[in-house]
């Protein structure tokens, strides 16, 4: 189905994933629900204050008057954000201020030539409130119109070709006040001194181009069960990396040798019995605890032993723990021994509500949900110890999430902006004591604090969370090396350890990561590259998804015999007919009633329905097959060729869908619809799948083909059966852009394809069309680059023939007095003198 691949690359660039992710992050007109705004809406200073989007000044330092500064959007009485409220954060177009005070627009080429950062001003609307004598919130200055104060808080580096860039097509059309066709847009890029075929997707920091490498990490909010070695003994352990709003907390549940199940909670040093924690969370009934943990009668004895142990007066003085109050008193003695009662209570509440499983909520009413979730984790540990389930596969791609440029910038901006707001709070309180009543934001804020943190991280690659090498200098040796660098995926595992399983190809990487394009040496298998057509999910909030599936008959969590339903790792309810639930949700997605971000999987062994809509899932497109035939018909193919059908139209009609690794476990996928005959029976020409036209897609029975050379028709048996659920878009999309340059990789040795992909990135050519004015420190230019005589289809999609690398050499293979032994080459002197393989090395000195 080359028509589908052609259609995708007509509408998407080769680095579309990075640009789409950054566009989702940056605040822009017409998109108030961006990630920058979400950071402001959820921020609270000090952190123990309940209300979000508010900075609360210390009453003792402001003359006894309680002041509040709102930086997030307004919320209703139930605490939900009013989405009709105007945005409070704004990003201006990139500008530069000259020494004489003149300010003008900044283009990427000017930033490169002048060694400056390509950045834009970030402005925030601050609204100052105070409490009146009745305790109500009123505006501190009722005469101000508008009521907020808009202040510049710093500079944000802008990704080239993103929505905030002056080269973005929508921004150029807005400035021109008219729509541009493709040739006019390319001409505008040339006028801006840009290479019109440059993909963008990188930043310019101090005049140098830097790219944020996509990071591969373990998925948060998922239960991972494994064996662990403790003092020479094998122990069953379950881990949950619970994550919410940038805060990540690890909760460990393990079964000791004596059968006791213990929990290690964040912000604590010692493990505590799971029964104590579940009772402290509000689950007092021993019968209910047993019901939540145990999955069969044989497991009951272990649970009973844990419950009986909780009544031991010697171990848990004075009387063990029978009630919630007893369990909380036990936790107080463990977590804050010797402290005042008020401090102990506050400490335990903070651990239960904020540190323990934060993705399930941070309020008291969420405690029962956490108790049920802990029971599920304990059940997984006991099932592993009894041999009823296997260890979870860490390398399965359903257990991995990717962090793109937008996700990484979100983490960096959250910590940097949080530091700025804490500093603002300190400066305001200090200014109040020095100048009575002075609460002006503009004179108290220090914008350089935010700008410096953002630029320092991008310039050095040292990111929040202790990661290094996140930002790298963009490889501009060749055009192919630049595009490959922008599609790179790196693992956080250390390079010095073997990690054989992590380096191996995994079956769930099929169609998502290129099986051949990986470096040789210590990075082998840890540094990977995306396959040709992939999508990284942008995410959909749990609340929005629950509202969309509200009519799917979700029952209470403890319904007997019902399958439990998890949404992004959060236990939301149960359902008595999970197979029908999964089928209904898939049909809704294919009809356009649910977003494409949603994927669903039913695990019959655990009797669980897992719905995912979080960001970072690497997905691939598959054609939907129903009753032994594709939904795609001949009418659709002709519509694609006539330009009447777009890529997104195929999803709206349920012809194609994005599938993640979890949902793919439920799929049976056909590689091809038919086997192409080796030769045409009419003209005797050799045939491949690209030389025939499938005339009856969407119909049952044999496949009717037409030879594109002579127009002769033929019939071959169909390979699609009633059992198939999906079919590949095209077998060629399982490899990446560098491997796609190797002709016939399926007939080649795998190590040779890997070497070919590596050498494709080293072949000199024209790295950029504007190389004459680019201030690159080092550059290579081949004098006479040529288009390859043997072409592959992937070369069209990456524009290889517009910026080719290498030359077509005429060679003879024979012995020449032993000089060309092994892989040596004897070159003709006159061909070298005429410029064969001649290149120039360019170096800029600053």
Task: Give a quick precis of the structure.
With 846 residues, the protein is an alpha+beta fold.
Could you walk me through the main structural features you see in this protein, from its secondary elements to its overall organization?
The chain contains 23 helices and 36 strands. The protein is an alpha+beta fold and 846 residues long. A hairpin with a 4-residue loop joins strand 25 and strand 26 (608-612). The protein is globular. Strands 1, 2, 3, 4, 7, 8 and 9 form a 7-stranded mixed β-sheet that branches. Strands 22, 27, 28, 29, 30 and 34 form a 6-stranded mixed β-sheet that branches. Strands 13-14-15-16-17 form a 5-stranded antiparallel β-sheet. The longest helix is centred in the middle third of the chain and has 30 residues, at 405-434.
Query: Helical content, roughly?
Result: 25-40%
Largest sheet: 7 strands, mixed
Radius of gyration: 31 Å
How many DSSP E strands?
36
Mean pLDDT: 90
Bin the strand percentage.
15-25%
The low-pLDDT segments are: none
Structural class: alpha+beta
What is the number of helices? 23
- What is the fold-level CATH name, i.e. the topology of the domain at 223-399? Dna-directed Rna Polymerase Ii 140kd Polypeptide, Chain: B, domain 3
Shape: globular
CATH architecture of the domain at 223-399: Alpha-Beta Complex
Q: Using the coordinates above, name the CATH class of the domain at 223-399.
A: Alpha Beta
Distance between the termini: 51 Å
């Amino acid at each position: 189905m080359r028509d589908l691949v052609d259609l995708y690359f007509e509408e998407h660039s080769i680095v579309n994933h990075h640009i789409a992710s950054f566009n989702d992050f940056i605040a822009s007109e017409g998109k108030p629900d961006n990630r920058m705004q979400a950071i402001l809406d959820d921020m609270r200073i000090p952190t123990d204050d309940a209300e979000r989007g508010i900075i609360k000044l210390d009453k003792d330092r402001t003359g006894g008057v309680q002041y509040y500064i709102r930086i997030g959007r307004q919320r209703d009485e139930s605490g939900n954000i009013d989405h009709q409220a105007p945005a409070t954060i704004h990003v201006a177009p990139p500008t530069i201020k000259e020494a004489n005070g003149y300010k003008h627009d900044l283009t990427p080429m000017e930033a490169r030539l002048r060694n400056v950062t390509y950045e834009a001003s970030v402005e925030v609307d601050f609204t100052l409130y105070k409490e009146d004598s009745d305790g109500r919130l009123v505006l501190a200055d009722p005469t101000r119109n508008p009521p907020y104060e808009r202040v510049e808080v710093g500079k944000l580096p802008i990704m080239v070709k993103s929505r905030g860039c002056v080269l973005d097509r929508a921004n150029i059309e807005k400035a021109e006040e008219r729509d541009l066709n493709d040739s006019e847009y390319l001409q505008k890029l040339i006028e801006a001194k840009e290479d019109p075929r440059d993909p963008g997707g990188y930043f310019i920091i101090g005049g140098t181009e830097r790219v944020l490498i996509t990071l591969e990490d373990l998925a948060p909010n998922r239960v991972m069960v494994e064996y662990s070695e403790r003092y020479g003994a094998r122990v069953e352990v379950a881990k949950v990396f619970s994550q919410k709003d940038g805060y990540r907390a690890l909760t460990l549940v393990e079964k000791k040798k004596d059968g006791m199940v213990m929990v290690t909670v964040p912000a604590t040093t010692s493990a505590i019995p799971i029964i104590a924690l579940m009772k402290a969370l509000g689950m007092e009934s021993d019968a209910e605890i047993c019901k939540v943990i145990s999955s069969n009668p044989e497991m009951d004895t272990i649970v009973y032993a844990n419950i009986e142990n909780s009544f031991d007066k010697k171990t848990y003085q004075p009387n063990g723990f029978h009630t919630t109050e007893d369990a909380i008193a036990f936790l107080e003695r463990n977590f804050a021994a010797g402290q005042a009662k008020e401090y102990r209570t506050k400490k335990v509440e903070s651990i239960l509500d904020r540190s323990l499983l934060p993705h399930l909520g941070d309020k008291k009413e969420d405690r029962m949900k956490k108790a049920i979730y802990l029971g599920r984790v304990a059940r997984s540990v006991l099932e592993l110890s009894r041999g009823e389930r296997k260890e979870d596969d860490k390398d399965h791609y359903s257990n991995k999430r990717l962090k793109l440029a937008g996700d990484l910038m979100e983490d960096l901006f959250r910590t940097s902006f949080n530091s700025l707001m804490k500093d603002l709070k300190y400066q305001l309180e200090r200014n109040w004591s020095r100048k009575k009543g002075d609460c002006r934001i503009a004179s108290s804020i220090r914008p350089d604090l935010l700008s410096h943190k953002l630029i320092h991280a991008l310039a050095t690659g040292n990111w929040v969370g202790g990661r290094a090498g996140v930002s790298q200098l963009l490889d501009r040796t060749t055009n192919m090396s630049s595009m490959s660098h922008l599609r790179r995926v790196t693992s956080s595992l250390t390079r010095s350890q073997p990690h054989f399983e992590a380096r191996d190809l995994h079956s769930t990487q099929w169609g998502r990561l290129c099986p051949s394009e990986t470096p040789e040496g210590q990075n082998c298998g840890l540094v990977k590259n995306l396959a040709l057509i992939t999508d990284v999910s942008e995410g959909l909030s749990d609340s929005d998804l629950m509202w969309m599936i509200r009519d799917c008959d979700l029952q209470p969590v403890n319904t007997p015999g019902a399958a439990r339903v998890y949404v992004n790792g959060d236990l939301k309810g149960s359902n008595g007919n999970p197979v029908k639930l999964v089928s209904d949700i898939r049909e809704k997605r294919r009809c356009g009633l649910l977003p494409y971000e949603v994927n669903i999987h039913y695990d019959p062994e655990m009797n669980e329905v897992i719905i995912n809509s979080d960001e970072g899932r690497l997905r691939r497109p598959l054609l939907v097959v129903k009753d032994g035939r594709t939904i795609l018909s001949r009418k659709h193919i002709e519509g694609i060729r006539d330009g009447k059908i777009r890529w997104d139209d195929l999803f709206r009609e349920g012809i194609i869908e994005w599938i993640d690794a979890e949902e793919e476990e439920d799929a049976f996928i056909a590689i091809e619809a038919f086997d192409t005959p080796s030769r045409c029976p009419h003209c005797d020409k050799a045939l491949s799948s690209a030389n025939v036209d499938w005339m009856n897609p969407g119909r049952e029975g044999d496949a009717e083909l037409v030879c594109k050379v002579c127009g002769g028709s033929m019939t071959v048996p169909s390979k699609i059966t009633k059992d198939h659920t999906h079919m590949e878009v095209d077998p060629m999309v399982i490899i990446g852009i560098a491997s796609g340059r190797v002709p016939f990789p399926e007939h080649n040795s795998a190590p040779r394809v890997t070497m070919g992909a590596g050498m494709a990135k080293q072949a000199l050519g024209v790295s950029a069309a504007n190389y004459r004015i680019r201030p690159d420190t080092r550059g290579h230019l081949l004098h006479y680059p040529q288009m390859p005589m043997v072409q592959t289809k992937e070369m069209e999609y990456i524009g290889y023939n517009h910026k080719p690398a290498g030359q077509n050499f005429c060679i003879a293979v024979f012995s020449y007095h032993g000089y060309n032994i092994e892989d040596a080459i004897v070159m003709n002197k006159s061909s070298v003198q005429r410029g064969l393989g001649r290149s120039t090395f360019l170096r800029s000195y600053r």
